[in-house]
Each structure stands twice: as C-alpha cells, then as structure tokens.
C-alpha cells in the first residue's frame, strides 16, 4: 500500500508547485507529472457560498508587516463551517457509524474519473434530478462505467458561482431559507444504481448539495453514505474536463471525527 501511494502521490505533489502559483484553473505542470492540472476548487473568501443556515467563511487578519529584525511576516486566523465552498461530505454526515472525514481511505479519494454532463436538462429545470437514464445515455456513448470510478456530475450551475440567487435559488439565510432552495441534484434511485451496479468510489457535482434543493429527506446522501461513498459538493470548472480519461485527486482537510471539510480537488488530464 505504501509503495502504491508513494508512486501515485509523490509525482502529484511535486507537480503541484507550478499549479498552485497560478489563478488559472488549468495549468501545465512541470516534470515528472505529465498532463494538465485542472483546479476544481473555488477559493474561500467572503463571497463563498455556504448552506443558508451557516455563517460562512471568515478570515481574521492578524499580523502583517516587517519585523524589527527586517523580515516580512504575516499570519491570519479563519473560521468556517465544515460544509461550504468546495468541500467533501463524509459518510457520517448522514449515516451513523460510517466514516468521518479523517477515516476515508486515500484510495477512495484518488482515481480515474468521468464527467456526466446533464447541463441541458439541469439549466431548463432548477429542480432537475439526475436519473439512471442520464447515466445510460452516457454509457451508450462511452461504454460502461468501470468499477471504482469517481463520477463528477456537470449541471452547468458552476456558471452561476458565486451569485447566491442563481446558484441557490434564494439570497435568504437562516432555517426558513432552506424551503426556498432550488438547484439540481442526484436522484436517490440513481445514487443506488451507482453504488450497487457500478460500485463508484465517490460522486461530485457543481451544486451546493448532492440532493436537489427541494429535498427534505436527503435520501441521496443517505443512500451513498450508508455505503461509505463520499460526496464532493460545489466542485468548480467541470467544463474544463473531458468526458473520461482523466484522474481526480480530492484531498480534504483531515478533521478528526469531522462530518465534512474544505476540499482541494484537482484533475490530471493527459
């Protein structure tokens, strides 16, 4: 296991030096990593979208300036709910006794990935739920989804980030705002199909929740998380990716016992 992870992660980490210095979501990485890095993560700031019941991201500026010894130094503090911006939902979020964010195996967060594009349907209906038929259409064009694939769902809602009205369906906050949420998600039956028929590693999408906005029981969360399949939410720049043939690396903040946390997710496109 250690040799496998070292051979996969070390080149990735070495290659990230170039990608992290650019604001462009797509950047060429230096050797030894071959391919293009695509950053699928939104930056955290005061415009970052959180669930309406949460405060949002707060950066508290601390020391900044030159010390009496002549060198520059700055350090800040931040506070944030687990579930906001580009983040990972751990299975324990909706499934008692399942994996917390620190317990998710790295193998489940790294691997071959596909994009299933439902933009046309999702933009036409803000309450659209992605169905088994959508996946069957993808398979008709590209072949069966291989086992242990990371599935990314492109609804087209990334174009609305960070406009709360367009992205969430409301600018309201607080518990009463939840009833006014309108955005696409994954239908529970399709979630069950992905788990039982295609044995996916993880599922991500470019909306605030893996369940659609009007869900009250969060059945898709429950279905995935009972099988320890995590979800990536508010994933950025899915329009930069091909339908298949790339690798995803999705590494969240490792919060012991956490139900979720900020996620730095990238794609490596050959």
Brief rundown of the structure:
This is Kynurenine formamidase. GO terms for molecular function: arylformamidase activity. This protein has 7 helices and 15 strands.
Describe the structure.
It comes from Catalinimonas alkaloidigena. One of its GO terms (biological process) is L-tryptophan catabolic process to kynurenine. The protein has 270 residues and is an alpha/beta fold. It has one domain (2-52, 82-269): Glucose Oxidase, domain 1, CATH 3.50.30.50. Helix content is 22%, strand content 23%. The chain contains 7 helices and 15 strands. It has a 7-stranded mixed beta barrel. The protein has a two-stranded antiparallel sheet with strand order 3-6. It has a two-stranded antiparallel ribbon with strand order 4-5. Helix 6 packs parallel to helix 7. The protein is globular and about 65 Å long. The two termini are 24 Å apart. Residues 1-22 have low confidence and may be disordered.
Main features:
globular, alpha/beta, 270 residues, two-stranded antiparallel sheet, 7 helices, Glucose Oxidase, domain 1, 7-stranded mixed β-barrel
Biggest sheet details? 7 strands, mixed, barrel
- Tell me the fraction of residues in β-strands, as a range: 15-25%
H/E element sequence:
HEEEEEEEHEHEHEHEHEHEEE
User: How would you classify the helix and strand content by structural class?
Assistant: alpha/beta
> What is the CATH architecture descriptor?
3-Layer(bba) Sandwich
Highest-level CATH class:
Alpha Beta
Percent helix: 10-25%
Q: How many helix segments?
A: 7
Distance between the termini: 24 Å
Low-confidence stretches: 1-22
Trace the largest sheet across and list its strands.
Answer: 7-13-12-10-8-14-15
Q: Could you name the CATH topology?
A: Glucose Oxidase, domain 1
Give me the count of strands: 15
The pLDDT mean sits at: 91
Shape: globular
Domain module tally: 1
CATH superfamily: Putative cyclase
Rg from alpha-carbon coordinates: 19 Å
Protein name: Kynurenine formamidase
Organism: Catalinimonas alkaloidigena
InterPro entries: KFase/CYL, KFase_sf
Pfam family, one: Cyclase
């Amino acid at each position: 296991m250690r040799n496998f992870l070292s051979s996969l992660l070390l080149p990735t980490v070495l290659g990230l030096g170039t990608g992290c210095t650019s604001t462009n979501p797509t950047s060429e990485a230096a050797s030894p990593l071959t391919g293009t890095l695509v950053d699928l993560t939104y930056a955290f700031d005061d415009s970052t979208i959180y669930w309406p019941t949460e405060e949002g991201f707060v950066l508290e500026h601390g020391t900044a300036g030159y010390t009496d010894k002549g060198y520059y130094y700055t350090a800040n503090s931040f506070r944030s709910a687990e579930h906001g911006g580009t983040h990972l939902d751990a299975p324990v979020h909706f499934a008692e006794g399942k994996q917390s964010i620190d317990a998710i195996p790295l193998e489940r967060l790294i691997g071959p990935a596909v994009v299933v594009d439902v933009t046309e349907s999702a933009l036409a209906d803000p309450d659209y739920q992605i169905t088994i038929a959508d996946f069957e259409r993808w398979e008709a064009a590209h072949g069966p989804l291989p086992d242990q694939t990371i599935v990314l769902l492109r609804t087209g809602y990334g174009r609305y980030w960070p406009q709360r009205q367009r992205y969430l369906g409301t600018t309201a906050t607080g518990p009463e705002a939840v009833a006014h949420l309108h955005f696409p998600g994954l239908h529970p039956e399709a979630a069950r199909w992905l788990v039982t028929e295609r044995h996916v590693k993880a599922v991500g999408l470019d909306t605030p929740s893996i369940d659609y906005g009007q869900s009250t029981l969060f059945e898709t969360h429950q279905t995935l998380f009972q099988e320890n399949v995590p979800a990536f939410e508010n994933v950025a720049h899915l329009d930069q990716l091909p339908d298949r043939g790339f690798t995803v690396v999705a590494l969240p903040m490792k919060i012991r016992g956490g139900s979720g946390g900020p996620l730095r997710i990238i794609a490596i496109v050959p």
